[in-house]
Fold this protein.
Amino acid sequence: MIFAKAIWVFWLVGILVFGLVVVRVESLQFRLCLLRMWWDRNGGHEVQSLKVPYNDVDKLKIETLEQMDDDKKTFAVQFATECPFNLDQCDAGGLSREWATLFAKGITQQSKHPMWPFFRKWDSESDVFHLNLEARSVEQMKLWKSLADRAVSEDFQDAVSEDFQDEFELREVWKSLADRAVSEDFQDAVSEDFQDAVSEDFQDEFELREDEQVLSLFYQLGVVIAKCFLRNLQLVPLSTALIKFVIRSDNDSDSKYSITYADFEELFPCMAKHMRTSPEDSPFDEISLVAEFLEEEMKIQTGFQDGDFNPAKQPSEKKWDSLAVKIVENEHVLPLLEYFKKGFRKVIDMNLGELFSVAELQQIMTGRASIDLGDWRKHTKYEKCSACHPVIKTFWSEMGRLSQQQLQMVCKFVTGLQTPPMKGFSELVPRFTLKTCAVKVMIAHTCSNTLDLPEAMDLSMMNIALCEIE
């Protein structure tokens, strides 16, 4: 009897293990559910209030980074300025999705503060975003120019301690620096005229303080991205290299999360292809990356020689991967990556690689690339009407005439997202709902993903209403 029970238990455990393996491979939704259960048990049930402006993307971005706590709490958004969602100021999901759309703009476009975007495409031909490798260099340039500008003011010498008074008396040197601060010879000018005149301690104090401010911003960015991931809020398509760096263990340098040449090619399609197909015409000892905010290109020393990748030497795939690591995790961006990872892992201190592949993590963070109207229609719920209602038929008929861009605008109007989650509208929570009621115009409720349609809406009215959505 006992033996029979043992066999039964063994068989049941085997079935459960097999089922979990199948689920691990096929059911992304189940694995996301497991992640959110972990989050809820570790503090995700607590809510932080995030109060940000609606009509200023730059301020929204900075205030988000300043306000977001580096813990495991979720957050609810409240817009502090006038917005189209004043009737939905209780965030049940719609306000957060609208905030995510605005925040994504803020971290990928140039602004006044900081003047560089947090994410950028390293190559115009790339489809993914990576951390902006220029951030620290731009801030250091601004710092030196600020010091040079202060040097010509009457109050500058009073601001410097007596120990440095004699070193700053040559006003002509400072004026020269101010004029040359943004020239391509600025670094040389600093080393010749300025660094010799100022003690190392004085330089380090200013440089370190400015660098810490930049790094702290990227730490907070990691916190925000992690919380958006947990809430399935899509922001921007992140590079494979960035996701690998974030989920890779600090002491795991040789694993499936190591950078490959394919990751480099994702960031620099043209350069990677040219280096691989025409190595004799490509430099390998020093790589120049295009800069958007600095006058000079970003130089990267690889440690390789130009002849190392000569086809006659038959360089191995591992050697090409090593080159990719030197370029992708270069000295300009590596500190930013490390602080971004610290912030991300402060929120999600578990091994995401055990639940998701790198490709799945990319898709979860990005959502679908386009909208499938058939999928949208299939997963629509109807309230106070049915799919056979004349207004509903007109709605879907006119939706079929819209371009992909227009469909995405309608989706954003109703849900706050330009595209649905990775698996389509079946994963949209709450489900997209169409409702006919006694209203005069089309009204969207982003918190409930509901679109109110006038009961007597004809073809012409429907066409105008859909085309006017921005």
Remarks:
- Residues 150 and 405 are 49 Å apart (CA to CA).
- The longest helix spans residues 200-230.
- Confidence is low (pLDDT under 50) at residues 15-25, 165-175, 177-187, 189-194.
